[in-house]
Model the fold of this input.
Amino acid sequence: MREVVAFLGLGANIGDRERAIRTAVERLGVTPGIRVLRVSSLRETELVGDGPPQGMFLNGACSIATSLPASALLSVCKALELAAGRTLPAPRNHPRALDVDLLLFGEEHIDTKELTVPHPRLFERAFVLEPLRELGVSEQALSDLRPMPAPRLVTTTREFQAICSTWIEGGCLTGLVPTMGALHAGHGSLFECARKECDRVAATIFVNPKQFGPKEDLAAYPRDLPGDLRLCAKSGVDVVFAPSPAEMYAPGFASNIDVGAEGETMEGATRPGHFRGVSTVVARLFAIARPHRAYFGQKDAQQVAVLRRLVRDLGFPLRLVECPTVREADGLAMSSRNVYLDAKDRAAAPVIHRALRAAQQAFAGGLRDRDALVQVATAVLAGEPRATIDYLELRSEGDLLPLPIGPVAGGRMLAAVRFSGGRTVRLLDNMSVVASFENSGS
Amino acid sequence: MREVVAFLGLGANIGDRERAIRTAVERLGVTPGIRVLRVSSLRETELVGDGPPQGMFLNGACSIATSLPASALLSVCKALELAAGRTLPAPRNHPRALDVDLLLFGEEHIDTKELTVPHPRLFERAFVLEPLRELGVSEQALSDLRPMPAPRLVTTTREFQAICSTWIEGGCLTGLVPTMGALHAGHGSLFECARKECDRVAATIFVNPKQFGPKEDLAAYPRDLPGDLRLCAKSGVDVVFAPSPAEMYAPGFASNIDVGAEGETMEGATRPGHFRGVSTVVARLFAIARPHRAYFGQKDAQQVAVLRRLVRDLGFPLRLVECPTVREADGLAMSSRNVYLDAKDRAAAPVIHRALRAAQQAFAGGLRDRDALVQVATAVLAGEPRATIDYLELRSEGDLLPLPIGPVAGGRMLAAVRFSGGRTVRLLDNMSVVASFENSGS
Done:
């Protein structure tokens, strides 16, 4: 069986620090599958990062030859910490009786839930780098092992599949955020939500030709990959998949996904084939990435309803997470298309939000008739001559099915409104009519 | 951190057997994260199973309390075997300087590539069960831990998803064999192929209503779940997923998968919507199970071509494996529908195979014209009055696209032939025209 040379970081800042470190090295030496090769000198360092006031650390490193896999070695390190009196999981940056970190494991890059190797903070920390140099790790080796800064950009299906497979097999809860790029704070909130819930986050950036109609703005759709990558980096996205159309749709592509009659109403009526294109590209992304969770904005509520059915129908084992619409200070829902509004249309556009809130307010005041509620919002929009209603409907919450004429117990009002001062810009928004005012963004 | 009580089997049959076992127990006792609780008495046993002539085993077991996860404990056991002079991987049933097996790990069932707990052969082996009883494992505990015999039958998407996820996250190469049940030796060869290549094999049994036309034999399609389960058991299938139609298609199901124009030729022309139904159900099974490989019979060659495109178009990260057609002694391709042939039709049906071989033979003899090759097979079928040709086409190998009129460099001939002596039975077969005669089944 192959032995691997690994490097462990050793540290302590309470109790008999040197004794704790020496004992750990001795115990490593008698562990089946581990031979200790060399131990570095020990040095005093301050705590790096925030934390309560505490004593200086004693730090060092050792090299070992091991037949254990990295995950087993990690378990042994944790057992040593436990035996030294440390309680796990330890609060971050609190005093520690013993710290044993797996720094390097041969030349391997490891990216699992439990373990990232090389150790993610290795390259920023002198108190780790110095002992490694002392143990004979060359600058060249360190530079070869230095990981690419996140987000890693990949453009081929094969690479993206491989990364996602590594995550899944490494036990990582994986989140996917499909986008068409031209990212704004609305997307930022999706990344943030994914980052909070998942071990690894992948964003995709693909302006999907299949979801644009022949007369639509595919070529003119805004694109800004450098800016998108900066937002992804800031949001802690691990990998960005930005394929070309040819990479997504091979010649002879024929496996399009139908969406049924509901996909032909509202957005689907105005944009024939739109949801077929959305479902097809999202099914492909789900098949490739196999995420545990996928994040979409509530601003595109009908898209979410269509995709919920796709997930249920085809049995994708994932949770679809719907994130609240993010708005500008004046209430306008954030959208990549807002940049196309000329100054006067931009000033007029918050009328959509006011119209939806007026319906909400009317509901709160006791109005229950479906068409009367729609009429309240229509009247507000009619007061803005720059706005033309494409559709305005009150539908059931969640699945967005049509509601019968007459009184309603609630629902979601969906609007598509055109502004044509400069070029024609079509904006979407929607709102629950039963939401409280404090929470009217959702 | 939680400690788990685990039981290890210890054995040796060369060298100083007792010393090897005692040394292993001592080394376990100093391993970080392990406390040895009790060691059983040691007993002499014969080798179980085939193997070269060799000495008696000394066998026992020990109980430990451990904070290590099971996979790390397994690595420690392997390291102990290595240290005792054993070379890994060891040939099966050869003499061993030391055997350390993880028998039980708390009450956990573990099913990963590296590890199956409880140990798969535990319940058949007195020399393992006796030491466990001596260490205080009750009959009740053993009975509770006894795994269900394979294949495990599941009927819900959720259960099937969960099992497949465990396999994937446990590093198992997973094979899927989708079937409509009524299994025969043809399916058996798919299972066998999957068993040879994969760590875990799942079969699905679902008579898919979506791939039957309104006038087709859905209700009459043969069903035999007990017989199917017996074949799966014999073939080493780990799990059988046999859902109801309602479990597969929820009310409001709308996400059907188109297959393009090629899916409307040959089988698709005779059976409108057939490949749409096939693609939809298979996409759902791929989404649920996320297999690394999926196995289909070459008898349904057009189905394989359609599914290859589905896999490519939607990006499912799997390899589609096409297995050779299995034939009766007289050349008839095995099919679940063969049982419907009356005696005279059954006697006549091998004419399809003879017709395809005649075309192959003509090609070997130098005939290259597309239509002339089809004519050779047509003439053979015309000689059998019980047979009516539904279609007979020579298409390109692999993607099965139409070939132009004139000379061909090769191709695959596909036939659908009806027999109507009793009820009408439609049989499919196909063959490469360039295959050698020795290998004409493929």
